[in-house]
């Protein structure tokens, strides 16, 4: 935020897109894995969002837009051992997004906040979480998945709506996704 203020005079749009999902089986997880999940997916998002809102208000900007790139894992419990802590972190993002929206309404602010919750997206997240490139590729080639452009297009849509329109949530699933295997 400091760099943005110094070099650009501030930003009016924030996209919180960082996320990690190391395998974290609840009965035998490594402490650093669960810390990494919550420090990245929840705490960093909260800190950046707080600082962004404070900067907007200090600059007298009342029509900024905050995007939290969330996950469908934050809308239900995905039956996949090792992903429950990630899902919990995304549930926290869902609650924090709605909580901030309500706080902004109480402040009579016109700052908008949108949660974009995609299903599986072809990114580097599987490799970052420890899968080999071959297994990650096999996963993406086997399961229906979204492309990063799909998420960017949704963000651009929400950003382009008139100031009186608040898009709370955009949920995006890849065509052909078998929900039964996820729930």
UniProtKB/TrEMBL annotation:
User: Which key words tag this protein in UniProt?
Assistant: Oxidoreductase
Q: Which Pfam families match?
A: adh_short (PF00106)
- Keyword Oxidoreductase in the entry? The reply is yes
Q: Which PROSITE patterns match?
A: ADH_SHORT
This protein's source sits in the domain of life called Eukaryota
The molecular function GO annotations come to: oxidoreductase activity
Q: Does the keyword Oxidoreductase apply?
A: yes
Q: Which InterPro entries match?
A: NAD(P)-bd_dom_sf, Sc_DH/Rdtase_CS, SDR_fam
Q: Which family does it belong to?
A: Belongs to the short-chain dehydrogenases/reductases (SDR) family.
**Name by which UniProt lists this protein:** Dehydrogenase/reductase SDR family member 11
Q: What is the lineage of its organism?
A: Eukaryota, Metazoa, Ecdysozoa, Arthropoda, Hexapoda
